[in-house]
């Protein structure tokens, strides 16, 4: 499902029609939920204020968004910006680790399967070494007070 108005918004901006662009953007923002935010982020190139509002929504409802099929369609830079936010809406840090694993697996599967590999080989290896590297990368992004450990699922204070 496409978000109605994005093409018209781009045209309004391209033809320097700020009032029309403002009205369209306000309409999109009025119906912004996590599903719409994920869809808009796929197409919001050069629509900076709308992109920012969508990233706000995804951060606010991160756990819900991470379960949506469009979550895997975020770019790596979009996901990185969202993960770095102080207002990331998660009940516990393990939800972030789980979301990133799912993102990586779906992203990897999409790239490999589109290039013609057999479906059976389109899974990510879940070796300890791979998980450890991802966990370390996440630990660098999370608060310095807590570190997520994927082996035990427990939090350790520094």
List keywords for this structure.
2 domains, 8 helices, 2 strands, two-stranded antiparallel sheet, 158 residues, single chain, disordered C terminus
Q: What does this 3D model show about the protein?
A:
Helix content is 59%, strand content 4%. The protein has 158 residues and is mostly helical. The protein folds into 2 domains: 1-86, no CATH class; 90-158, no CATH class. Strands 1-2 form a two-stranded antiparallel sheet. Mean pLDDT is 74; it is low at 112-128 and 143-158.
C-alpha Rg (nearest Å) = 18 Å
Which spans have pLDDT < 50 for at least 5 consecutive residues? 112-128, 143-158
Q: What proportion strand?
A: under 5%
Counting DSSP E segments of at least 2 residues, the number of strands comes to 2
Q: Span between N and C termini? A: 45 Å
Order of helices and strands: HHHHHHHHEE
Number of domains: 2
Overall geometry comes to: elongated
SS summary, helix count: 8
How many strands, what sense, and barrel or not for the largest sheet? 2 strands, antiparallel
Mean pLDDT: 74
The percent of residues in helical segments reads 55-70%
Provide a compact summary of the structure:
The protein has 158 residues and is mostly helical. Helix content is 59%, strand content 4%.
Describe the SSE topology.
Elements: H1 6-14, H2 18-30, H3 34-43, H4 48-60, H5 62-66, H6 76-83, H7 94-114, H8 128-141, E1 146-148, E2 155-157
Antiparallel strand pairs: 1-2
Helix pairs in contact: 1-2, 3-4, 4-6, 7-8
């Amino acid at each position: 499902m496409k978000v109605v108005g994005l093409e018209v918004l781009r045209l309004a901006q391209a033809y320097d029609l700020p009032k029309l662009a403002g009205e369209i953007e306000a309409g999109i923002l009025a119906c912004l939920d996590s599903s719409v935010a994920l869809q808009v982020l796929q197409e919001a190139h050069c629509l900076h204020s709308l992109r920012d509002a969508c990233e706000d929504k995804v951060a606010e409802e991160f756990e819900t968004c991470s379960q949506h099929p469009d979550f895997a369609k975020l770019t790596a830079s979009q996901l990185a910006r969202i993960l770095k936010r102080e207002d990331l809406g998660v009940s516990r840090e393990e939800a972030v680790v789980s979301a990133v694993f799912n993102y990586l697996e779906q992203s990897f599967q999409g790239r490999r399967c589109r290039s013609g590999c057999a479906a059976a080989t389109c899974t990510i290896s879940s070796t300890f070494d791979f998980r450890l590297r991802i966990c370390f990368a996440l630990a660098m992004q999370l608060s310095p007070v807590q570190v997520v450990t994927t082996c035990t699922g427990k939090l350790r204070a520094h």
